[in-house]
Amino acid sequence: MGATDRVKVFWQPGCTSCLRTKEFLTKSGVDYESINVHGNAAGMEELQKLGARSVPVVARGGKFVFAQSLADVIKFLDLKVKQQERLSPEDLVKRLEIVLPAACRYIRQIPPEQFDKPFRNRNRPIRVLCHHVFRIVEGFLESMQDGKELTYERIMKEAPELRRGEAIATFGAKMRRGTGAR
């Protein structure tokens, strides 16, 4: 493989999908160049030249795949690895019965003046990240209803009207009810 064909992973701190992608590739023995695009103009420019606007992205030879799905990464890199079996929708709902109430509790503990500040070294405010936790669930429920694939684009809808912690937590409780959780 030439230098131009080297696998590259574009990521940013605080992105759990980015971390999962890098851990998967390392565990699978894939040699890759790690490019943190946060605060890295050259890295961001390289990502945008590919035609991508968000991370995680796995690229090779001028082509790329969004790495939200490890199955897509496996196919893109033609890896001969067995992917972990996906959880059934019922098993996902059981896990949500733990995650969603905890997320609601934690969000209610965040001081109101913190919601529009960036979270650690992320370039998105805390309120957007808090909403994103529940938006993933909302997108999952939408996919369960209409049978369409749960995609990155589907879960990235922002709700600017949810500016305060209580409003976000109430939205999260609504998602919990939507899963059938108690």
Topology summary:
Blueprint: E1 7-11, H1 16-27, E2 32-36, H2 41-50, E3 57-60, E4 63-66, H3 70-77, H4 89-109, H5 126-146, H6 152-155, H7 165-178
Parallel strand pairs: 1-2
Antiparallel strand pairs: 1-3, 3-4
Number of helices: 7
Rounded to an integer in angstroms, the radius of gyration calculated over CA atoms is 18 Å
What percentage of the residues does DSSP assign to strands (E)? 5-15%
Shape: globular
Number of domains: 2
Low-confidence stretches: none
Task: Quote the distance from N terminus to C terminus.
Answer: 53 Å
Main β-sheet, in a few words?
4 strands, mixed
Provide a brief overview of the structure.
The chain is 49% helix and 10% strand.
Explain the overall architecture.
- The chain is globular and about 50 Å long.
- Helix 4 packs antiparallel against helix 5, helix 4 runs antiparallel to helix 7 and helix 5 packs parallel to helix 7.
- Helices cover 49% and strands 10% of the residues.
- It folds into two domains: 75 residues, Glutaredoxin, CATH 3.40.30; 90 residues, no CATH class.
- The protein has a four-stranded mixed sheet with strand order 2-1-3-4, sandwiched between helices.
- It is α+β, with helices and mostly antiparallel strands.
